[in-house]
Each structure stands twice: as structure tokens, then as C-alpha cells.
Amino acid sequence: MSETVSDRLKALSITLPAASAPAANYLPFAATENLLFISGQLPTENGRMVATGHLGADVSLEDGQKAARACAINIIAQINAALDGDLDRVKRVLKLSGFVASAPDFTDQHLVINGASDLIAAVFGDASKHSRAAVGMAALPLNAAVEIDAIVEIA
User: Fold this and answer.
1) Among 117, 114, 109, which residue's Cα sits nearest to residue 138?
2) Residue 139 dihedral angles phi and psi, to the nearest 5°
3) Paired sense of beta strands 90-101 and 131-137, if any
4) Which domain holds residue 33?
5) Could you report the per-residue pLDDT of 65-119, keeping only the tens digit for each?
6) What single string gives the DSSP state of each residue in 16-77?
7) Residue 38's domain is classified under what CATH number?
8) Is 18 contained in some domain?
9) Angle, vertex CA 121, rays to CA 116 and CA 126, nearest 5
10) How far apart are the first and last CA of the chain?
């Protein structure tokens, strides 16, 4: 595995977007001592939603996983902003909480959120071992298919 987080991102052909501004009365991230809390990130790329609607109805599992991956990229962008571009200060990704807009009979939320967990593992290596929640929701903001937040330990 590459030596730095930036090297791993480059090897994965990922260019981080600018961290998105909050859409309401909240902070995109908040830090206290050695913990960084990242607000829920939607699955956007280049200012557009990657997937809208409900898994099990109008969004496929594969598209849901792509949406979760986009959320993870946006989480990393927020971490990057919070740490002034020094992603190597991440000691450990402690938790991801994934919210999946789901049809009533959809039960594969955990497989959807794997799209984020797998990317976090590829980018942060040993520091990526996190706890996780994958929860089905009736609806998410802006009709997003997925939203994910994070808690990260930092140096």
C-alpha cells in the first residue's frame, strides 16, 4: 500500500472536491481535542446528486454502492478541509453512520454502505477499521439515496 493518504488517493484516481458548505444551520465538521465529527454527506459529484430515490424501488444496489462511495469521497474532502490538507493526521476512522433511503421491503442497507467502507479502507489502510451503522430511512434530504456521517480520531 502507498505510504501517504494522498498517494493512495492518487493511486485510486481520486481528486478530492472542495468541501461542500452547509445547507442549513450547522457546521460541516466540528472538532474537539482529538475527535473530528463530520456532518452527513450526500452523494454528490461535480455539484450533482449521484443517486436519488429509494433502494429496492428506483435505485439499484450497485447505484446505491456508488452513491455511498461518493458520500465517502465527500467525507474525506471535509476531513481534508478540517485538517488544512494534512490527511495523514487521521489516526483512525472510528465510525461511519449510513442512512439509506429504502423501499419498505429493502433489507440490504449494509451492502449499500459497503461502498463507503471499502473506499475508506482503501484510502486510510490500517487507520480505516471502523464501527458502523447502516439504517433504512423513509426519505433523505433532496431525495438523496444515501447520506453518511463520520467520527474520526486525529493527531
Assistant:
1) 109
2) -160, 155
3) parallel
4) 5-13+27-154
5) 999 999 999 999 999 999 999 999 999 999 999 999 999 999 999 999 999 999 9
6) PPPPPPPSSSS-SEEEETTEEEEEEE--EETTEES-BS-BTTTB-HHHHHHHHHHHHHHHHH
7) 3.30.1330.40
8) no
9) 150
10) 21
